[in-house]
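[step 3/7] inverse_fold.run input=structure_tokens len=144
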């Protein structure tokens, strides 16, 4: 069965004690590593990086991000006309974006100091030569 990106939707509960955000449908059993990236500027673009083996999960913990995904057809010479999938993540809406292996991603903050939590199903140095990077201009998706 082919793995495809998907949003795992959460919810919120608010009462006199405050607000509780949750994503109860997210199963974290495969997670081996968690890290964060903060974009102080909305002009910062992190694109295009991906993994042949490793899968990732993104959660916006502060602010908001545009996230774009491309399934790679050929890792040595990918087509210039691959379909780009667009996602918007915001800390106001609890959800997890699942990015399966075989995809590259790019992301950019929509608000200054936005923070993204990234989870991986592999530990550091557990697999070699899995990360692949392409020039951020390759698919020309960052023009506003």
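[step 3/7] decode complete -> sequence:
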């Amino acid at each position: 069965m082919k793995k495809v990106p998907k949003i795992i939707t959460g919810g919120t509960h608010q009462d006199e004690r405050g607000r509780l955000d949750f994503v109860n449908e997210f199963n974290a059993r495969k997670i081996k590593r968690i890290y964060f990236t903060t974009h102080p500027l909305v002009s910062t673009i992190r694109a295009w990086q991906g993994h042949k083996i490793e899968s990732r999960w993104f959660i916006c913990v502060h602010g908001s991000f545009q996230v774009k995904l491309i399934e790679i057809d050929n890792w040595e010479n990918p087509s210039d006309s691959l379909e780009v999938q667009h996602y918007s993540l915001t800390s106001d809406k609890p959800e997890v974006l699942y990015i399966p292996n075989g995809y590259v991603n790019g992301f950019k903050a929509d608000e200054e100091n936005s923070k993204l939590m990234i989870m991986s199903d592999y530990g550091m140095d557990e697999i070699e030569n899995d990360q692949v990077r392409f020039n951020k201009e390759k698919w020309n998706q960052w023009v506003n």
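[step 4/7] annotate
Residues 84 and 141 are 8 Å apart (CA to CA).
The chain has a mean pLDDT of 94.
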